[in-house]
Design a protein that fits this description.
Elements: E1 5-9, H1 16-23, E2 31-33, E3 37-38, E4 53-54, H2 57-65, E5 69-76, E6 79-84, H3 85-93, E7 97-101, H4 104-114, E8 118-124, H5 128-138, H6 143-157, E9 165-168, H7 172-196
Parallel strand pairs: 1-7, 1-8, 2-7, 3-4, 8-9
Antiparallel strand pairs: 3-6, 5-6
Helix pairs in contact: 1-7, 5-6
The structure holds guanosine-5'-monophosphate.
Length: about 200
């Protein structure tokens, strides 16, 4: 049986990383995290093969030309990110379902690539006001960076309806349960279909 592809997207500040860290612990979901490749250099304590596969810009370009990516994007000017086909095979080869933390454009491209084998989940903040409050609470951004993040969040929220499932993160445990349930239902239905064939 082939593993399934779970795509999680959300504007920054929505609690997506925390939700992923909760659901990845659920053994019954058999999830394996997809490590993206990037053309930027490692930051701080980042290690190759842990946070990202760090490729030189030349190497990244060569692998794009070779058709090695499921999807890739120039997320920041001059800096590319993408999911390697070999990464999907690595996780699925371990008998796991692949979970991807990816932006809206990338997420919808991956869905196009995998079709009904993929489930797309969008995490929503309770409201834009609440998202702004959470981002301000972090206090790590300048006012300008905060405005940029909020602008991007408004843009990304416009894609929520294109996702299969939407989950409002008003409470981290409840939202994590809802995401886990949606994944379980998707895996079970697909398994039943696979069993019938
Ligand atoms: P970072 O701060 O880690 O350098 O940048 C992360 C950005 O790259 C985020 O916007 C994230 O959504 C995006 N990103 C990370 N991995 C991928 C990927 O595999 N594909 C695409 N399209 N975007 C990615």
């Amino acid at each position: 049986m082939k593993g399934k592809i779970i795509i999680l997207s959300a504007p920054s500040g929505t609690g997506k990383s925390t939700i992923i860290s909760h659901i990845i612990e659920r053994a019954e979901l058999r999830l394996g995290f997809s490590i993206s490749a990037t053309s930027r250099s490692p930051r701080g304590s980042e290690r190759d093969g842990r946070e990202y596969y760090f490729l030189t810009p030349d190497e990244f370009g060569r692998r794009v030309a070779a058709g090695d990516f499921v999807e890739w994007e120039e997320v920041y000017p001059g800096t590319c990110y993408g999911t390697l086909k070999s990464e999907v095979e690595r996780v699925v080869g371990e008998g796991r379902n692949l979970i991807m933390d990816i932006d809206v454009k990338g997420g919808l491209n991956v869905k196009k690539y995998f079709g009904s084998r993929a489930l797309t989940i969008f995490i929503l903040p309770p409201s834009l006001e609440e998202l702004e409050r959470r981002l301000r609470g972090r206090a790590t951004d300048s006012e300008e960076a905060l405005e940029r993040r909020l602008g991007k969040a408004r843009y990304e929220l416009g894609f929520a309806d294109d996702y299969d499932v939407r989950v409002v993160n008003d409470d981290i445990d409840r939202a994590s349960d809802e995401v886990a349930d949606a994944i379980m239902r998707f895996i079970e239905v697909e398994e039943e279909v696979a069993d019938e064939v």
